[in-house]
Design a protein that fits this description.
The complex is a heterotrimer of chains A (307), B (428) and C (236). By secondary structure, chain A is of the alpha/beta class. Helix content of chain A is 40%, strand content 15%. Chain A starts with 11 loop residues before the first helix and ends in a 5-residue tail after the last helix. Chain C contains 5 helices and 8 strands, in the order E-H-E-H-E-E-H-E-E-E-H-E-H. The chains are: A alpha/beta (307), B alpha/beta (428), C alpha/beta (236). Chains in contact: A-B, A-C.
């Protein structure tokens, strides 16, 4: 594997192998010295065109625990703001001698373009509304350690602004690839005009599907969507689609709750629910580093590399 | 002045098709017949000898964006594509909303390889609010008025423009039909592919809402209205119904809209980004059907050059538009004529004499007959060639057909009797 | 990432290296895969049992008991061997020796030269600091796996001493590493493959065999998966 751009680049076997690898790194991250020399001398650049402290820190920590050298590229203080094209920017960075670019961009497909322009590996850390493959993988890793290696037959609902969600695009395909039944739950204004090609069913009514679920996956609500008339008010959104205490009480006792963060407590999820025993939210964050170590190791080490 | 004979081809013009040589003298066709001789000859064996093509929709980027294209380079690309006249769109910097700017474009076109006709804007600054000085522009020869690049979204402004144009002989209001609120932020066709790729969509309804509205306005005002780059099945059906009801509307389609679909966007390469966007297979079929039954009158390229670095951005951030002039006729032949959608005669009608009539260009669009101005295109339908962006005459490289082998190429182009393209090479 | 349990070809736990990774070795990638021929049956189940027993005694003898000893097996077969040694020591000494499992993938020096995948999670049940760690593997070859194991072990603590036990020492060391306890010294050619089968890891009867790529015109050469009549026995 040269790049990780989309969940669709991986088949079920490929996903399972990455999860297996991540399990070894989970052990490493729990050691007193949570670091291995595996990727000594490899240079990883984190190139974030969009702010995301959480994802950036998670990737940089993963790279450092593999003994990579990590270069942060700050877009705000760079020539990007002077109108340099994306291609010029990444080719300049590559000329410094790097092995991988971890890239976050506000536009869909930006990492795919970069992968065509440079020889280094490219990891998609979130591209516009398109994909966030490492989030989907760390979510699978989290579920794997709670409900077993496969998701066959598990009923998972992804609730929220599906239309604008890269987490939903990656997650729906990853969950389905491991055998889950995925339902997208959202008002019609927050769904794509068609979900043809998505391995999902669709519902506009959270209460109707709630009682059957094994996993409720809540997406962050972006307040600016209200100005786009995607929904009338946060209060109405919470009333119809929020995982309130009352709704959580109607979940099956063994049902699990996930959220990619950062949360709007009291909007898509009640604070008590987010901190309750069914919540995997903290585990998701903890698994992020091990999963991203697995991805970097797979791209720069295990695959035979390119340098 | 010496005689020039175009020898060995098949003449094709509004009168039909026949084997004949064509003698040109002093910029005018003087004789059409068999076994002609002259001081110089152009070999047309295996070729169609037809009126030069007319493109009612090109972006020449001058003034203001000369790094993408100039009148000179755009006209050279047009001539290589067999065009003898093109209508330059007004979304320049400054825009073509002022007589001095229009005059400058016309002056730049005077020595070009193709006749360059200027459009004029409908509204000042293409802002969609106040009418541009349409009368002053008309006096400079402007016949097509458009805010292209943008839609005239305000129904009140559109109504006034249509009404006002009725006082200007030959004037036609030309609409880029895409409702700006419905396409806000969109970068590709809204559908299965945009859903999968997470790229904000431009829905078909955005085009159809404006076409439906403007058909009503055109019928109510009795004005001439032209729809640019129709791209959806629904829009084709609306135009078909409008024509049946007697509205004075015409419509154009672009080669990329009957050749490529939104699936191309899966590459995330903005060379496939264009407005209106590449649509679905069903839309593509409807465009072909609309061309076949005459609902769509003309084929225009919407030739839209952009500098390479502008397309080296992510899809959503790159500018819209693709090159078209040098590949159009080959694509018409491959996608429409060979499969039997259009006869050769209907294809040239859509590319030459019908657009000439819409743009009010009496010297273009034939016939190939004594006394006609010698604006001619000699086309070899069997010539195979590969589209190599670096070999295009256009200053820009943003062709979506790079690397594709096409069959059919313009061998010679004559502008007022001058050979501006000889054996596929530009002479100006 | 699952270790191949089949017979032919390189074994990723470091028992043998793929030819491409061995300096001067045969080219593996792109070339026609060699036909492997079994040259010898080295140890059968009974012999292996005796080897385990002997090494177990040697460990106890060297360390004057087993109280401070931790047996740490290297994935995959080293872990099984370590458990057998612990069982043997338990049988004659009456003590329970802790057994750990060590994965050395992330410490190897050939990452990015070939696919290096972890074979299992590192699990050492006790603090190694102050103890005698006996690293256990099935075959000692270039020494690079043991070198990586020493690094991996360092991350876990500071043992009083580290010793090395192997079933087979086949020579061709590329590093200054020597085993403390050896089941059998075996002269081999660099291209040979020493194939270890253990009931726990391979689901077959125990056995160790020597295989090598067939030379041109080699009598009895046939694919390794089904060796057929033993070519070794056919030879004078």
């Amino acid at each position: 594997m040269k790049h990780l751009l989309s969940v669709g680049d991986l088949d079920r076997t490929g996903i399972e192998q990455l999860l297996e690898l991540a399990t070894s790194f989970r052990e490493v991250t729990r050691r007193e010295i949570p670091k291995v020399p595996a990727l000594r001398g490899k240079v990883v650049v984190s190139l974030f065109y969009e702010d995301s402290t959480r994802t950036r820190i998670s990737f940089e920590t993963a790279a450092k625990r593999l003994s990579c050298d990590v270069m942060g590229f700050s877009v705000a203080s760079s020539s990007v703001t002077k109108g340099e094209s994306l291609r010029d920017t990444v080719q300049t960075i590559e000329a410094m001698g790097i092995d991988a670019v971890v890239m976050r961009h506000s536009a869909a497909g930006a990492p795919h373009r970069v992968a065509e322009w440079i020889d280094a590996s490219v990891v998609n850390a979130g591209d516009g509304c398109h994909e966030h493959p490492t989030q989907a993988l760390l979510d699978l890793l989290t579920l794997r350690h709670r409900i077993g290696p496969g998701l066959d037959g598990a009923r998972i609902a992804i609730v929220g602004d599906i239309l604008h969600s890269r987490v939903a695009r990656s997650g729906a395909h990853a969950f389905a690839a491991l055998g889950a039944d995925v339902t997208l739950v959202a008002p019609p204004t927050m769904l794509p005009s068609t979900v043809a090609g998505w391995p999902v069913t669709v519902s506009h009514d959270l209460d109707a599907v709630l009682g059957d679920l094994d996993v409720v996956y809540l997406l962050r609500i972006q307040r600016e969507r209200q100005r786009e008339t995607r929904f009338p008010s946060l209060r109405e959104y919470t009333a119809r689609y929020g995982l309130t205490v009352e709704r959580a009480a109607r979940l099956r006792p063994e049902a699990l709750i996930m959220h990619p963060g950062p949360m709007n407590r009291g909007v898509e999820i009640a604070a008590e629910v987010a901190e309750g025993p069914a919540s995997l939210i903290t585990e998701q964050v903890a698994n992020g580093v091990a999963m991203r170590m697995a991805v970097l190791y797979e791209l720069l080490g295990a695959g035979g590399g390119h340098g | 002045m010496a005689d020039l004979v175009i020898r060995g081809g098949r003449v094709l013009d509004p009168g039909g098709e026949r084997t004949a040589d064509v003698r040109v003298h002093d910029g005018v066709v003087v004789e059409v017949g068999e076994h002609l001789t002259g001081d110089t000859t152009l070999d047309a064996s295996g070729c169609l000898v037809a009126p030069g093509l007319v493109d009612v929709h090109v972006h020449l980027r001058e003034p203001g964006m000369e790094d993408a294209e100039t009148v000179e380079t755009g006209a050279r690309a047009a001539a290589l594509g067999g065009y003898t006249a093109v209508v330059a769109m007004p979304n320049t910097t400054p825009p073509l909303d002022d007589p001095t700017v229009v005059a400058a474009v016309l002056a730049a076109g005077a020595r070009a390889a193709c006749e360059v006709v200027s459009s004029g804007t409908i509204t000042r600054g293409r802002a969609g609010e106040e009418l541009a000085p349409m009368g002053e522009l008309h006096a400079l020869g402007v016949r097509m008025f458009t805010d292209d690049g943008d839609c005239v979204a305000d129904a009140g402004v559109m109504r006034r423009a249509l009404e006002y144009a009725r006082a200007l002989p030959g004037a036609v209001i030309s609409q880029h039909a895409e409702d700006p609120d419905l396409v806000a932020g969109g970068a590709m066709h809204e559908g299965e592919w945009s859903s999968r790729l997470g790229i904000p969509g431009r829905p078909a309804m955005a085009e159809e809402v404006v076409v439906a509205r403007d058909v009503i306005l055109a019928r109510a005002t009795g004005a001439r209205l032209h729809f640019q780059h129709i791209s959806t099945a629904g829009a084709v059906e609306l135009v078909r119904a409008a024509k049946a009801a007697g509205a004075r509307v015409t419509a154009e389609a672009c080669p990329h809209h009957f050749t490529l679909t939104d699936a191309c966007c899966a590459t995330f390469d903005p060379v496939f980004k264009v407005n209106p966007p590449l649509r679905t297979d069903a839309d593509l079929a409807a465009i072909k059907a609309g061309l076949a039954d005459g609902t769509i009158d003309v084929i225009a390229t919407d030739h839209a050059p952009h500098p390479t670095e502008a397309k080296e951005r992510p899809f959503e951030e790159a500018p819209s538009g693709m090159l078209g002039l040098e590949t159009a006729l080959a694509l018409v032949w491959e996608e429409l004529v060979r499969p039997g959608v259009l006869t050769p005669l209907a294809a040239f009608a859509a590319c030459s004499w019908k657009p000439a009539a819409i743009a009010g260009l009496a010297d273009h669009g034939g016939p190939v007959a004594p006394g006609a101005v010698a604006n001619l295109c000699v086309f070899d339908p069997e010539h195979r060639w590969e589209v190599a962006p670096e070999r295009l005459a256009s200053k820009a490289r943003n062709t979506p057909f790079a690397g594709r082998t096409l069959t059919g190429k313009v061998r010679h182009t004559l502008l007022r009797g001058d050979v501006v393209v000889r054996d596929g090479e530009a002479q100006r | 990432m699952v270790p191949p349990t089949g017979s032919a070809g390189p074994d990723p736990d470091g028992t043998t290296l793929p030819a491409a990774a061995v300096p001067g070795g045969r080219s593996a990638s792109g070339a026609v895969p060699p036909v492997w021929v079994r040259r010898a049956r080295l140890l059968d189940a009974d012999a292996l049992r005796r080897v385990h027993t002997r090494i177990a005694h040697e460990i106890v003898e060297r360390n004057q008991g087993a109280e401070a000893v931790v047996l740490v097996g290297l994935y995959t077969r080293g872990v099984a061997v370590a458990r057998r040694l612990a069982d043997a020591i338990g049988a004659f000494e009456g003590v329970t020796v802790p057994v750990g499992a060590l994965d050395v993938a992330f410490y190897r020096d050939d990452i990015a030269l070939r696919p290096v995948q972890p074979l299992g999670p590192t699990e050492v049940p006790v603090d190694v600091t102050g103890r005698v760690v006996v690293l256990v593997d099935d075959v000692l070859f270039t020494g690079r796996t043991v070198r990586a194991a020493l690094d991996a072990l360092t991350e876990l603590g500071r043992p009083r001493a580290v010793q090395l036990a192997v079933l087979i020492d086949r020579g061709h060391r590329e590093l200054p590493i020597r085993a403390d306890f050896v089941g059998k010294n075996l002269p081999t050619h660099e291209d040979d493959d020493v194939r270890v089968r253990l009931a726990e890891t391979d689901g077959t009867d125990d056995g160790i065999e020597l295989w090598s790529p067939a030379a041109l015109g080699d009598p009895g050469a046939d694919p390794g998966a089904d060796p057929g009549p033993d070519p070794d026995e056919a030879r004078p």
